[in-house]
């Protein structure tokens, strides 16, 4: 009985092939496209995670393929705007006095920045933060005793909140 052995040879190629793109032979292609060289993958502290390198190389290959075919890469492709951005754009288009709204926004940012600086300066003083904390605790206790402990006081507080809400919003 004769024994036969067969060998299987697999050759690797460094050519990137897009399976979705139509294939053209080199003779029928009127122009040559040279692909840029790939940068080396980022140096990792531990080489125990080969899938990160593989994912990085796939991302680079996808970008190179996109550049070769003239498409925009997936990261650069224009996506649809979120709903909140559309809402803000529509609201901005409805504003009649854009200068006043812009001025108020800038003034608000400046006031926020200034108040943050003032609070951080007060916080650096040695005794002031502790004293202010005690004042806050004392006022919170007084407010709770005055308005929340007894039922008639709670009802009066709720009524006052409703009246203030109607004054601000207006009766409809």
From TrEMBL:
The keyword ATP-binding does not apply. It comes from Quercus lobata. Residues 1-49 are annotated as: Disordered. Residues 1-16 have a biased composition (Low complexity). Pfam families: CAAD. Residues 86-170 form the Cyanobacterial aminoacyl-tRNA synthetase CAAD domain. One of its GO terms (cellular component) is chloroplast thylakoid membrane. Residues 25-34 have a biased composition (Polar residues). This is Cyanobacterial aminoacyl-tRNA synthetase CAAD domain-containing protein. It is a multi-pass membrane protein.
């Amino acid at each position: 009985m004769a024994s036969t052995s067969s060998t299987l040879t697999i050759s690797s190629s460094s050519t990137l092939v897009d399976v979705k793109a139509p294939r053209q032979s080199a003779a029928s292609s009127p122009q040559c496209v040279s692909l840029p060289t790939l940068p080396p993958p980022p140096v990792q502290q531990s080489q125990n995670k080969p899938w990160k390198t593989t994912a990085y190389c796939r991302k680079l290959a996808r970008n190179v393929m996109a550049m070769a075919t003239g498409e925009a890469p997936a990261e650069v492709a224009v996506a649809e705007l979120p709903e909140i951005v559309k809402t803000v754009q529509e609201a901005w288009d409805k504003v009649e006095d854009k200068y006043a709204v812009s001025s108020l926004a800038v003034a608000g940012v400046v006031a926020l920045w200034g108040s943050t600086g003032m609070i951080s300066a007060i916080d650096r003083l040695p005794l002031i933060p502790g004293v202010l904390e005690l004042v806050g605790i004392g006022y919170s206790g007084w407010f709770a005793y005055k308005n929340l402990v007894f039922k008639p006081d709670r009802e009066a507080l709720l009524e006052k909140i409703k009246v203030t809400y109607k004054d601000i919003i207006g009766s409809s």
